Amino acid sequence: MDGVIWVMRYYFSFSLTLMIALMSCGGDEGAPGSNPDNITFITQPSAQVGHTSVFSFQPQATHKNGDALTFKIEAPAWLNYDKSENKVSGTPDWDRLNSSFRVKIMATNGIDTAIQRTDIQVTLGEIVCGTNFGDPADSEYILPFEPRQTYKLQNGNCPTNPNWGHQRTFAYDFGTPMGTNILAMRGGTVIASISHQPDVPDCSVGGGNIVFIQHSDGSVAFYGHFKQNSVMVEVGDRVNQGQLLAQSGNSGCSAGPHVHVQVYRQAGPYDRQYSLPINFSNSDGPLNSQGSLVIGENYTAL
Ligand SMILES: [Zn+2]
User: Fold this and answer.
1) What's the chain's Rg over C-alpha atoms?
2) CA 3–ligand 1 middle distance (angstroms)
3) Cα of 297 to ligand 1 centre, how many Å?
4) Dihedral (C-alpha) 178, 179, 180, 185: value to the nearest 10 degrees?
5) How close is the Cα of 40 to the center of ligand 1, in Å?
6) Span from the CA of 151 to the centroid of ligand 1 (angstroms)
7) Which range of residues forms the domain containing residue 113?
8) Residues near ligand 1 ion, CB 5 Å cutoff
9) Which of 72, 230, 247, 300: CA 20 to 30 A from 239?
10) pLDDT interval class at 8 (50, 70, 90)
């Protein structure tokens, strides 16, 4: 019986502690015997951070008597506290998107201790254009046109020219003439297909005639601007790498016949920040130091 009471007491006191902790979120408190009111925090960590951004924070506080304060930090594993620089920093990365993390900062002069808490929300950040695209030999993707054909890359990843589109996103536009056969870069399942849009530039219909293919890892390839009524696959179809999808056209927001290809991390939302950096295992043509195809260069499918 004593054991049960002890457990109940323990549970009650644990719940009470938790309640107090939650109530004091963002406020100050101190160790027993100390006077936390003597310490004032003069900085507050920002409550939002983009998933690819470096979060960096230097705690600062003052003691009423001017005493020097030292800090102790409790933070999630993706954040590092450098004591010599008194700096908390780190990058949350994809796995932490849409999550919240508590940072607890204790300031003390050895007698008084005050605590500051902040919940850091991880939000969708911009992609890192300077990322490494990896070794093309390891790429899961092949060029979206037939072997021994050569096309110019009209637009690519993160162009510096603001008039070209593809700003802060990973995508390729190959200058494939009207009627060129366009092939699946990677096998998967068709999850969207449109074929009725006319071959007339119209930015109100985005990619015009499109195919979206989901791969086994959940990522989704987007192919756009196909020729009207040329799309040969339907939602639910399984397609193999290299399978004919449609013919190149000029539908949607297009300034001339080409194919737009882009890979997203998952099936929607299709924000540019969800695009993935890809290259191609069968591409003969120059790559930049990151392993990305280069705008204005010609590429041959091997
Ligand atoms: Zn494009």
Assistant:
1) 27
2) 68
3) 16
4) 100
5) 53
6) 15
7) 28-123
8) 173, 260
9) 300
10) very low
Q: Are residues 195 and 262 in the same domain?
A: yes
Q: What is the Å distance from ligand 1's center to 135 Cα?
A: 23
Over residues 192-251, the pLDDT tens digits come to: 999 999 999 999 999 999 999 999 999 999 999 999 999 999 999 999 999 999 999 999
**In CATH, what number is assigned to the domain containing residue 32?**
2.60.40.10
Residue-wise pLDDT for 89-109, tens only, equals 999 999 999 999 999 999 999
CA of residue 224 to ligand 1 center, whole Å? 8
Are residues 140 and 74 part of one domain? no
**Which run of H or E residues covers position 19?**
helix 2-23
- Residue-wise DSSP of 111-168: S-EEEEEEEEEEE-----TT-----GGG-S---SS-TT-EEEEEE-SS-S-TTSS-TT
Q: What was the pLDDT predicted at 282?
A: 98
pLDDT in tens, 127-145: 999 999 999 999 999 999 9
Of 147, 139, 151, 176, the C-alpha closest to 257 is: 176
Of residues 241, 255, 233, the one with CA closest to residue 175: 255
Q: 204 with 139, same domain?
A: yes
Tell me if 13 is assigned to some domain. Answer: no
Which whole number is the average pLDDT over 115-133? 96
CA–centroid distance, 260 to ligand 1, in Å, is: 4
Give me ligand 1 centre to Cα 172, in Å: 6
- pTM equals 0.83
Q: Is residue 111 part of a domain?
A: yes
Q: Are residues 117 and 139 in the same domain?
A: no
| Distance from Cα 155 to the centre of ligand 1, integer Å | 7
Contact present, 122 and 49 (Cβ < 8 Å): yes
> Which of 103, 123, 143 corresponds to the end of one domain?
123
C-alpha of residue 180 to centroid of ligand 1, in Å: 16
